[in-house]
């Protein structure tokens, strides 16, 4: 039991390298995180939930599909150019 406590204390006091801090942000306070987990937020009685519309907006769906298709067509030439580079890295990894 004492070894586990020492490990957890050691992890809290260990300095974080700059690369990890850049990628993941500063370390969080674990005590504060567990306290917030125990608290449940009370919903505000005065707020009304948004009204759900049972109708599907087909025009909006078609616009989104059109945007996706256009993005695909724009990225397709770039992917053709980068494919040999990806294959080179795959071969060098083996």
Structural account:
This protein has helices spanning 2-13, 18-24, 30-38, 58-93. It has 94 residues and is mainly α.
Please give a handful of descriptors for the protein shown.
single chain, 94 residues, mainly alpha
Give the structure's gist in a few sentences:
With 94 residues, the protein is mostly helical. The chain has 4 helices and no strands.
State the major sheet. none
Give the assembly state of these chains.
single chain
Rg, Cα atoms, Å: 25 Å
Give the structural class. mainly alpha
Report how far apart the termini are: 44 Å
List the uncertain runs.
Answer: none
| Overall body shape | flat
Strands, count: 0
Strand content: under 5%
Number of helices: 4
Note the run of SSEs as H and E.
Answer: HHHH
Overall helicity: 55-70%
Mean pLDDT: 76
Q: Which helices and strands occur, and which strands form pairs?
A:
Layout: H1 2-13, H2 18-24, H3 30-38, H4 58-93
């Amino acid at each position: 039991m004492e070894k586990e406590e020492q490990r957890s204390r050691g992890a809290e006091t260990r300095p974080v390298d700059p690369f990890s801090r850049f990628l993941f942000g500063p370390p969080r306070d674990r005590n504060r995180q567990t306290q917030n987990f125990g608290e449940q937020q009370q919903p505000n009685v005065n707020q009304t939930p948004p009204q759900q519309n049972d109708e599907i907006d087909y025009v909006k769906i078609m616009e989104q599909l059109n945007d996706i298709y256009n993005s695909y067509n724009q990225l397709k030439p770039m992917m053709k150019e980068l494919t040999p580079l990806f294959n080179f890295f795959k071969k060098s990894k083996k």
